TrEMBL record, chain A:
It holds the Pfam family BPD_transp_2. Keywords: Cell membrane, Membrane, Transmembrane, Transmembrane helix. The keyword Ribosomal protein does not apply. The chain crosses the membrane at residues 23-44, 51-79, 99-118, 125-143, 174-193, 223-248, 260-283, 295-323. It comes from Aquibium carbonis. GO terms for molecular function: branched-chain amino acid transmembrane transporter activity. This is Branched-chain amino acid ABC transporter permease. It is a multi-pass membrane protein. It is found in: Cell membrane. One of its GO terms (cellular component) is plasma membrane.
Automatic annotation (TrEMBL), chain B:
One of its GO terms (biological process) is amino acid transport. One of its GO terms (molecular function) is transmembrane transporter activity. The chain crosses the membrane at residues 12-37, 72-92, 101-118, 149-168, 200-220, 232-259, 266-285. This is Branched-chain amino acid ABC transporter permease. The lineage of its organism: Bacteria, Pseudomonadati, Pseudomonadota, Alphaproteobacteria, Hyphomicrobiales.
C-alpha cells in the first residue's frame, strides 16, 4: 500500500503564514460574534447553545483531520467521555460549571493521550478503524461503569453558579458563558493552526516522509495534535452536558463520531470556518427532521454521499475557491 | 462430571460454541472486507449494513415469496451481491483516484442510508426468522448439548471460508485477482478487464456478508441494527489480523470469537471489550497486525 500519511486531495486553504490574523478572518470572527450576541434574543437559546457546542466539537475534529490529515472515527469517545466526567463533577462533586468543564477537558485529554499513542502506530484507514474500535470500547465501558448510570445516563445535572457567584439556571446567563467558552476554544484552534506547530502539521499532512527526512519527529506532532483535538472535543462535550443537564450514551456512541465527520466534511475540511457552518446546518437539520424518526439518519447518509461525490471541498471550501482567499 | 476452575463443563463448552459462532461471523465478514480492501483499496463501511440486508432479504423471501431457508442461502448472496455491484458501479468506482478515506466516508454514508431505510420500514424491535425444520433439535455429545443449527453454522462457515481461500490462492481466477491487487495496470495490459474484476470482487465480498446475514437470521432476530455493532468488532478483528493474508483473516476471526467466548465464562464483564483490549496489545507489540505486512 503506497499511501502517505493521509494526503486528502482536496485543495486546501493556503495558510497565511504565522503572522497576525488577516483582515478577512477578523471580519468573519467579528461577524460571528455579533451573530452570537444577537442569536439568543431571536432564537431559542438552548438550540443556539447546542449549535455552539457542536461548532467547537467540529472545529476540534477538523484540527485533526483538516490540518493533521488524520481521520479519527472515534471522536465521540472524547466528546461523550468528557460529558460524563463534567456531569459527574457538577452533580456528585458539586463543582461549579467552569471547573466541571475543565475536569471534562482534562479527562478527554488523558483519554486522547492513551488512545492517540496507540492509534498513531497505524496510518490511513487503519487509523480510522483503530480509533473507531477504541471509541466503541469507551462506549461499552460507559454502558457498564457504575458512575455513568448505564442506559439512563447522568440526569438532572445542576447548572450551578459560575465561579460560585452567578446563577447559570436562566438560559440567557448560561448562554453568554457558553458563548465565551466556545469563542475561546475557537480562537485557541485558530492560533494552533497558524502557529509554527500548525505549519509543521500541514507539512506532515501533505508529505510525511519529507517531514521525517527534514528531521521532524512526526509521531510527536501527530500525538500532540491528537491530544489537543481530543481535549477541545472534550470541552465541547463537557459544555453540552452542563447545557442539557444530561450526559448520556448517545454522546459516546459511534453515530456521534459519524456526525462530527459529516459536519466537517459538509462545511469544508481544512478550512477555518467550514466546520462551524457544517455544525449549524446539521444541528438545524436534526432539529427540524427530529419528528420524522429515521429520516435524520437517511438525510445524513444522503449528505455524506452527495458531499463525497460532488463537493469534497465542502461549502466553505467552495466559497474560498470562488473568492480565491483562504477561509 | 469434571469441573474446570469451578466452571461446569456445559457452561464452558456452551460459551465456547457461542464464541465459535460469533467467530464464524467475524471470519466471514473480515474475509469479505479483506478481499474488497485488497483490490479496491477501500474499507467497506457498508459491510455491516449488507450483512443486515442479507438477513432481511432472507426474511422477505420467506414471508413475501415463500422461499425457504435453503433457497435463501443461495439466492440472498446473489441478490445482495447484485445491489453491491450497482453501488460499486454508481458510486464507489468514481472514487478510486482519490484518497482511500473518501471511500470510507462514502460507504459510511451508504450504510446510514440503508440502515435508516430498513429502520423506517421495519422498526427496531426485530423480526423472528424460523430455523429450518431439518436443523432443529440437537445432539447430546456427553459433555455438552449441541444444537444442530449452531453446529451447521460453524461447519458451513469453515467450508465457505476455505473455499474462498482455495479460489483465491489456487485457481486461475484467483491468480488474476492477486495479480490485480499487486499491479492493476500491468494486469490490464495483459488483456484482463480489471474494472470488471474489481466490480465482481466487490459483489463477491458483499455476497459473503449477505451469506453471513442469512446464517445469522435464525440465531439472532432480524434487526436493522444488527450490522452496525458487529462491523466495529470486525474492524478490530481486521486490525488485529492485518489484511495481508486470506487465511490470516479466517484464523483471526475464529480465534477471536473463541477468546470472546472464553472471556464470557471467566470474566463476563470484560467480554464486550476483550477484542478491543487485544487490539491495543497487538498495536503495541506488532503494529502491522498478526498476519499483516508493514505498510
Amino acid at each position: 500500500m503506497a499511501t502517505q500519511a493521509s494526503p486528502l486531495d482536496t485543495p486546501r486553504a493556503a495558510s497565511p503564514g504565522t503572522a497576525g490574523m488577516p483582515v478577512l478572518h477578523m471580519v468573519i470572527f467579528a461577524g460571528l460574534l455579533v451573530l452570537g450576541l444577537i442569536a439568543p434574543y431571536v432564537l431559542y437559546p438552548v438550540f443556539v447553545m447546542k449549535v455552539l457546542c457542536f461548532a467547537l466539537f467540529a472545529c476540534a475534529f477538523n484540527l485533526l483531520l483538516g490540518f493533521g490529515g488524520l481521520l479519527s472515527f472515534g471522536h465521540a469517545a472524547y466528546f461523550g467521555g468528557a460529558s460524563y466526567v463534567s456531569a459527574h463533577a457538577a452533580k456528585i462533586w458539586g463543582l461549579s460549571p467552569e471547573l466541571a468543564i475543565l475536569a471534562g477537558t482534562g479527562a478527554a485529554a488523558v483519554l486522547g493521550l492513551a488512545i492517540g499513542s496507540l492509534a498513531i502506530r497505524r496510518q490511513g484507514i487503519y487509523f480510522a478503524m483503530v480509533t473507531l474500535a477504541f471509541a466503541q470500547m469507551v462506549f461499552f465501558f460507559s454502558v457498564q461503569a457504575p458512575f455513568t448510570g448505564g442506559e439512563d445516563g447522568i440526569q438532572s445535572v445542576p447548572r450551578g453558579h459560575l465561579f460560585g457567584l452567578i446563577s447559570m439556571a436562566p438560559d440567557r446567563n448560561l448562554y453568554f458563558f457558553v458563548l465565551a467558552v466556545v469563542s475561546i476554544g475557537l480562537l485557541v484552534i485558530y492560533r494552533i493552526i497558524h502557529s509554527p506547530f500548525g505549519q509543521v502539521l500541514k507539512g506532515i499532512r501533505d508529505n510525511e516522509p519529507r517531514m521525517i527526512s527534514l528531521g521532524y519527529r512526526t509521531r510527536r506532532y501527530k500525538l500532540a495534535v491528537f491530544v489537543l483535538s481530543a481535549a477541545l472535543a472534550g470541552t465541547a462535550g463537557a459544555t453540552k452536558a452542563i447545557v442539557f443537564q444530561l450526559a448520556s450514551l448517545t454522546d459516546v456512541y459511534w453515530t456521534m463520531s459519524g456526525e462530527v465527520v459529516l459536519m466537517t466534511l459538509l462545511g469544508g475540511m481544512g478550512t477555518v470556518f467550514g466546520p462551524i457552518l457544517g455544525a449549524a446546518v446539521i444541528v438545524t437539520m436534526q432539529n427540524y427532521l427530529a419528528t420524522f424518526g429515521d429520516w435524520v439518519t437517511i438525510g445524513q447518509g444522503i449528505i455524506f454521499v452527495v458531499a463525497v461525490m460532488l463537493f469534497r471541498e465542502g461549502i466553505v471550501g467552495v466559497l474560498a475557491r470562488i473568492i480565491k482567499r483562504p477561509l | 462430571m469434571f469441573e474446570l476452575l469451578g466452571i461446569p463443563p456445559q457452561a464452558l463448552f456452551g460459551q465456547l460454541l457461542l464464541g465459535l459462532i460469533n467467530g464464524s461471523f467475524y471470519a466471514l465478514l473480515s474475509l469479505g472486507l479483506a478481499i474488497i480492501f485488497g483490490l479496491l483499496n477501500i474499507i467497506n463501511f457498508t459491510h455491516g449494513a449488507q450483512y443486515m440486508m442479507g438477513a432481511f432479504v432472507a426474511w422477505m423471501l420467506l414471508n413475501y415469496a415463500g422461499v425457504p431457508y435453503w433457497g435463501a442461502l443461495f439466492l440472498v448472496p446473489v441478490i445482495v451481491g447484485a445491489t453491491g455491484v450497482v453501488l460499486e458501479r454508481v458510486f464507489i468506482s468514481r472514487l478510486y483516484h482519490l484518497d482511500h478515506l473518501y471511500g470510507l466516508l462514502l460507504t459510511f454514508g451508504l450504510a446510514l442510508i440503508i440502515t435508516g431505510i430498513f429502520r423506517n420500514q421495519y422498526g427496531i424491535s426485530g423480526l423472528p426468522y424460523a430455523m429450518p425444520k431439518q436443523l432443529t433439535g440437537g445432539q447430546n455429545l456427553g459433555f455438552m448439548f449441541l444444537p444442530n443449527y449452531r453446529g451447521w453454522v460453524v461447519v458451513v462457515s469453515v467450508v465457505v471460508c476455505l473455499a474462498t481461500w482455495f479460489v483465491i490462492e489456487k485457481t486461475r481466477l484467483g491468480a488474476y485477482l492477486r495479480a490485480a491487487t499487486e499491479n492493476p495496470t500491468m494486469v490490464g495490459a495483459f488483456g484482463i478487464n480489471v474494472p470488471r474484476l474489481i466490480t465482481l470482487t466487490y459483489g463477491f465480498g458483499v455476497g459473503l456478508a449477505a451469506f453471513a446475514g442469512v446464517l445469522a437470521a435464525p440465531i439472532y432476530s432480524v434487526n436493522p441494527n444488527m450490522g452496525a455493532d458487529v462491523i466495529i468488532v470486525v474492524f478490530a478483528v481486521v486490525v488485529i489480523g492485518g489484511m495481508g493474508s486470506i487465511l490470516g483473516s479466517i484464523l483471526t476471526g475464529f480465534g477471536l470469537g473463541l477468546v470472546e467466548g472464553l472471556t464470557r465464562v471467566f470474566y463476563p464483564e470484560g467480554s464486550a471489550v476483550v477484542i478491543f483490549v487485544i487490539m491495543a496489545i497487538v498495536l503495541l507489540v506488532k503494529p502491522a497486525g498478526l498476519f499483516g505486512r508493514e505498510v
